[in-house]
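Please, is this right?
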Amino acid sequence: MSSYGTLIFFCGKMGAGKSTLSGKIARERGAVLISEDEWLAALFPGEIKDFNDYISYSSRLKPVLRSHVEQVLLAGTSVVLDFPGNTRKQRAWFKDIYSQHGIPHELYYLSVDDEVCLKQLKQRQKEQPKRAQFDTEEVFRMVTGYFEPPEESEAFNLQIVERKSA
């Protein structure tokens, strides 16, 4: 039996509730929560103005965090990464963290209808006005165009969370 921590990460469209669920799971499990949005805002304040900026800065952040997260997991503490795993390439980064040492992992796939995501984005615009320029239907449609749901061939320990519009 491994004494490693568990790596917990997420896949779901923009507005699906990944950040909300990541916080809940981290609290319930006493895990370290690392939020990409918080790190990017702290390290690059005011520098992320569009989706291309996000891609650029996110790609700079991940190599720095990768080794750190692995060390925390090897020390026996679980880590919840509130980073999107919405494409095969993004999910490969998570796999790179846990696969070399056989660290336990869980991928939560939030299977949420577009209508629900858009409704939640409108609510987030009100609650977090600084994000309002990114939390639009236009950005949602653009980002969703890249979305790739996880496939069985990727061999993740998958937990599916479904939410349909009423």
